[in-house]
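Here is an idea for our session: we take a single protein and study its fold together. To get us started, please write out a protein record for me. Start from the sequence, derive the backbone structure tokens from it, and show both lines together. Go ahead whenever you are ready, and we will take it from there:
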Amino acid sequence: MRANPFTLHTELVHSSSGDELEILDLRHFNSTDLRPLLEEETELWLSKLDWDYSSSSDMILRYVDARILPGYAAIERGRIRGYCFFVYEGAKGVIGDMFVDPFGYAPEQIRHIERELVTTTIETLQQSPGIHRVEAQLLIHGAGEASQEFIDGGFQCYSRFFMEVPIAVGLPAPSRPLRQEIEIRPWLDGDYQPAAQIITAAYHGHVDSDINDQYRSVPGSLRFLNNIVRFPGCGVFDAGSSFVAVHRVTRQTIGVILCSRVRQDVGHITQVCLMPEFRSSGIGEHLIMATAQNLRSRGARMLSLTVTEANDRAVSLYHRLGFTVRHTFDAFVWES
């Protein structure tokens, strides 16, 4: 992450309750200031998505204490009521999270604070020198809840599903046997490069490469994989429930599934894809089955994933395997 190129930001607006709302640079604060708000957010993630957000919360607090996390805090009557943070990745800005404590507020008051945080963040990123793209996926927010500010800012909006399936009793059998020339084996540290090549090939011209531009190149896909494995933004990476599919004759790696633990008894698929020439052969189903069986053998009860609504092929597959939509949210992209 690099420092925000602007000076510390202070803005006074009036809340709908009549009190002054200050939007201050997040680097004014430390973990002691922010911890109560993140504890409230962690409870919301757990109740709404069965997701233990504490690892992500701890990482945010470490960056806050180091004064290196760009973002804003909404202050009313001396209390932090909400925050939004972002990171810089080369010529791209990524909005990582936004949360407002709902306690004691009417819905329109919460939306007012959210609107001020999001609008200020968007303006900062779009005006940052050298930034030509901004991405955001506010997973905890329902579809449409914060979309107007992004649309007003010139963003494209993509609807996404958070889906889940109970795995205690197993998933439906794959629609076809695994081809004899295909082997599914556990993920190894040496799989980064071939996995990056698979991701890049699988998402060429795909809607998901519009949402996440890292998928468009092998170096970008390697950065994506590194973030998935090293950082807890999508849960804690679980190598034991992550697998690759290999063509026995050529020894080419042709498919990959990566899984994290978002709580002790819940796994989350962070990536599953195949080389294009091996689609529609049932290999993806067998990769998902391998992950589900491994998780179940270690006491997990649920498996979740996210998918773009427009990805009809994947959505149909997940429905057939028993996944249901628990939550719908938005992804946003702006390019200059």
